[in-house]
Every structure is written in C-alpha cells, then in structure tokens.
Amino acid sequence: MANSDATATTTTTAVFIPVRLSSTRLPFKALRKIQGKPCIQHLVERVRRSQKIGPVVLCTTLNPADDELMDVADKLGIKYFRGSEVDILERYRQAARAFGIRNIVNVDGDDIFCEPAFIDATSAALNSGEPAPDCILWKDAPLGSSPVGIKVEALEKVCSLKDASNTETGWPRFFTETGLFRVVYMRPDDPELRNTGIRLTLDYEDDLLLFEKIYDNLQEPFSLKDIVRLLRSKPELLKLNEGLSDIYMQNFNRKAI
Prior knowledge:
Blueprint: E1 11-18, E2 33-34, E3 37-38, H1 39-47, E4 56-61, H2 67-76, E5 79-83, H3 88-99, E6 101-106, H4 116-126, E7 135-138, E8 148-151, H5 152-161, H6 173-176, E9 183-186, H7 205-217, H8 224-233, H9 235-238, H10 244-256
Parallel strand pairs: 1-4, 1-6, 4-5, 7-9
Antiparallel strand pairs: 2-3, 6-8, 7-8
Helix pairs in contact: 3-5
C-alpha cells in the first residue's frame, strides 16, 4: 500500500526508511520527541541534506499500530509504503516496484544521526560504472551513522531465492553470505570518524537521553564530526548509553538465528 501518487516512472535512487511503532525495547520511539519534534522528523530532515538522492520513502507495515506514521509522512511531504511486518526485504521489493526505484539507500528509522555525506557516497557508488555494487555496507563508522546500499535487481534475486519469511533482523546477510552478489565495504574518509566506539542508534531509553543531550549541545545543521567531537569533549555523555551495544548484539544474534 503506497501513497496515491505512486507511479511506475523509474527513479534512479531513493532513500528507504524502515520504521514501525511496535518496538518491544522502546515502543513508539519514532514518535518520541526531542526539542518538540518526533525523532522520525529529525531523521527525515537530516536525510534531506543529502545531495544525490531522489524520493524519501517511509517503509512501514500493514499493522494498524503503524497508521499514525502515514499522517507523519504526509505532514513531512514524503512518500510511504506499507507492506509485510516481518519480511522487510519483500516490503522493500514491493515498494521499489511501486515507485519505480532502481537503487535503494536504506537508512534505519532508529538512526536519526545518519550522516548525509555517507548517504551521498553510497548513492554515488550504486550509480557508478559497471560493475556497480549489488550491496554496500559501511565499516568502522559510529554505530547508527551509516546507511546500506542495495541494487533493486539484486534485491529481486534475493527475494526469489530466499526461503525465509522473516527477514526483519540481520537482512544484509542475504547479500553477504550467499556468494551471489558483489558486496562493497566503504569506510569514512576522515580518520576522526573511524573506530570511535560511539553508539548513535535509538533502541533504549538511555539512547534517547543521549540524543537529547546532543541536540542540547549542538545547533543544527551539525555533522557527524560535530557529534564525535562533542562526545569526546564531554565523555560523561558517552556514559549515558555505555554498554548498550553489547546488550543489543546479544538480542540481535538471538533473533537472527
């Protein structure tokens, strides 16, 4: 189910933002507010600072609990698509078909500090000369600051071959572990942004508290480097969500089995 203005006209690249409201760790986190704005609005505004993308598509589920996200998408002037609650790859395939997308830059709805420069670099690589990557992943960047790039042609192949109906957790493995696709790993050019150990993804209440502190200390528009420098200058802020990455990965690995 997509916006009524969905067309079959092919667009080169779009940002897909997967988001739903039924999270067990931090329910309705996309709508939690920082400085009066829902987190999802902060993310959309950040994504729009990118220079090399087409439409922004909020990709949510058919669960009635996510109905409120349609109003948010309309208010922000972005497209939306509703599909499978558990098979995110199929949701993406159907969204790509609905909007005529060839390349997807995935920006998780939890990652409100995803770096626009990384989005641009991912888009540029997806649109590079042949052979262009089928999947682009980022290494060494702060957790929650980088997107994933996907060729829709490769996504179609994954969906036609996979035997899993639940792909919500750890879906990049369908590209990286099959040996069927050209996977490229990118790293931040700036050494200051590599291997920081900083966690910038919204899963727990303590993550939200850190995000609030970041917005209290920085004035938009600010970059990922600004965030890194702030947190290094105020290490007490890093302690707000210290240790949550280990807890998250334990839960992630259990769900991905």
